[in-house]
Amino acid sequence: MSQPPSQAPPPSQQNAYAPPPGQPQGYPPAGQPYYPPPSQYYPPTAGYAPPGQPPYAQGSYAPQYVPSGYYQAPPTNYGAPPGPPNANYYAGPSSSYPQQPPVGYQAGYAPPPGAYAPAGYPGQPTTPGVPSMPLAPGGVAPEMSASFEPPTVLYRDTIIHNPKYSGGLAVVGYTKDQIVHDINRINKAAGDEKKLSAILVELGPLKMDVVAQEFPNHNNKNESLAQHVVRKTSGHVEKTLLGLIEGPLRYDVELVRSSIAGLGTNESLLNEAILDHTPTDIALLDYVYRQKFNKSLAHAVSSDLSGNVAKLFKFVTDPNRELLPAPNTSPEELQKLLDNDVDDLYNSGPGRIGTNEEKIYKISTHRTHEHLTNLCTRYKQKHRKPVSEMIRDEFGSSNHDAKALLFIVNGAEISHHAHLANVAPLALRDAESLEDTMKGLGTKNTLLIMRVLRAQWSRGRMEATKQAYYRIYEKSLARRVKGETSGAFEDLLLAMIGPS
After folding, report:
1. Is pLDDT of 473 > 60?
2. Cross-referenced SMART domains, in alphabetical order (predicted)?
3. Share of the chain above pLDDT 90, in %
């Protein structure tokens, strides 16, 4: 493992997988574990590149995919530190919350400098010698209208093709010859599940889309990549590879559908499928869900639920939900919101007769992750009880709304175990959920596949989860999975988890 960088990132660059508040500043001694967490809203941090590709020249991840005919200028600075943030790094309570992306796709939205947009797009630095798009009066590119969509977007910390973009798929630095070469490798793997799995894992979600698009043109049967996988594999390997081909967004659409199909609701699956999503994630999920099932995400979910929990999910599935605090909120206003939320949580439960469920739902679903983490910390300091315990007292632990609230809070609440207090709550929750699929008699393979798949699409998330798993259970996640699986399925999961 490479050594941590010598310069720590400022508080404004912390994210959901960064250590919780109250931890000492600076990096641990050389050789101790550290996390390379993702940014919640921007491209992966410095030094990361897709498998088989060198890191970008500037040390930052280079967006690989832009529309055909557009030039993608090399990024000059994503605002990322010179290396991955450290697991034990925390620079004290932050007065600068991560900037949220706009709700939906608003006209005039300019992505961060160097993001995925044609040269000349507002906010995109131009490159000498490279033509920029002509700007209309007011400095807005002609394509910038209510219907304009960038070719790639972020979904759950992963760069994906924007399903609303109509310009087709193209790859910078991924030539036609290279695409054909990868397709030939897939065809030559024939019935070797291990070899086929290794090829598909290394592609990543964006290249996977391009290969899947071209695959039918390179076999006599006009066979899709998914059909090829079904013909060449079986069982858990087949199910996992089909998930890889779907990619993070379409896979989540299927998770939501599976959780509400048939009689009853798979509450745990529904919670995992959407509760962590930002409003922008929900807008993307809703768009693809409507395309596939001719029904809005909100309507599909609400029609399967009843009672109080339906109110909670109505908040979650609203793409226009506003997350507070807003960007650039002053330190004074941040503190005021934090104090008010602590008081409102208490006065909605322990501080009154009966429970104001809707108020608790709204605070839990209308706050940024960083704010929720600070809220959980401050609530425990003031009321001598964790928010999770308050929820159990007020809602029990078996009702769906209780499980949903605990899922949210467990991703923000600092562990009461001293040796885990400097590990990001989201990473702890992910590690514990993976262990739940393997403990006891038998392995819950379907859940194991789902949780490994969703973590591996964001390498920062996977690395943070692996480190958290080791801290909790004193063994590597790869070693644990190896003991529970075998054959090509074991090889595939280990490839997705990556080196220990």
Report:
1. yes
2. ANX (SM00335)
3. 63
**pLDDT value, residue 169:** 87
Q: Tell me the C-alpha distance between 315 and 321, whole Å.
A: 7
Radius of gyration of the chain measured on its C-alpha atoms: 23
Look up the CATH architecture of domain 176-316: Orthogonal Bundle (1.10)
What is the predicted pLDDT for the residue at 149? 87
User: Are both 176-316 and 424-500 of the same fold?
Assistant: yes
Q: Residue 190 has what pLDDT?
A: 79
CB 5 within 8 Å of CB 83: yes
Hey, what are 91's tokens?
């620079």
Q: pLDDT digit string (tens) for 301-317?
A: 999 999 999 999 999 99
Give the separation between CA 480 and CA 435, rounded to whole angstroms: 9
Determine contact, residues 359/315, Cβ cutoff 8 Å: no
The model carries a pTM of 0.75
CA 460 – CA 479 distance, rounded (Å): 20
Cis before 113? omega within 30: no
Span 184-238, pLDDT tens digits: 999 999 789 999 999 999 999 999 999 999 999 999 889 999 999 999 999 999 9
- CATH for 424-500 is 1.10.220.10
Residue 41 — pLDDT band, cuts 50, 70, 90?
Answer: very low
Q: How far apart are the C-alpha atoms of 438 and 430, rounded to whole Å?
A: 13
pLDDT in tens, 216-226: 999 988 999 99
Q: What is the 3-state secondary structure (H, E, C) of the chain?
A: CCCCCCCCCCHHHCCCCCCCCCCCCCCCCCCCCCCCCCCCCCCCCCCCCCCCCCCCCCCCCCCCCCCCCCCCCCCCCCCCCCCCCCCCCCCCCCCCCCCCCCCCCCCCCCCCCCCCCCCCCCCCCCCCCCCCCCCECCCECCCCCCCCCCCEEEECCEEEECCCCCCCCCCCCCCHHHHHHHHHHHHHCCCCHHHHHHHHHHHHHHHHHHHHHHHHHHCCCCCCHHHHHHHHCCHHHHHHHHHHHHHHHHHHHHHHHHHHCCCCCCHHHHHHHHCCCCHHHHHHHHHHHHHHHCCCHHHHHHCCCCCHHHHHHHHHCCCCCCCECCCCCCHHHHHHHHHHHHHHHHHCCCCCCCCCHHHHHHHHHCECHHHHHHHHHHHHHHHCCCHHHHHHHHHCCCCHHHHHHHHHHHCCCCCCCHHHCCCCHHHHHHHHHHHHCCCCCCCCHHHHHHHHHHHHCCHHHHHHHHHHHHHHHCCCHHHHHHHHCCHHHHHHHHHHHCCC
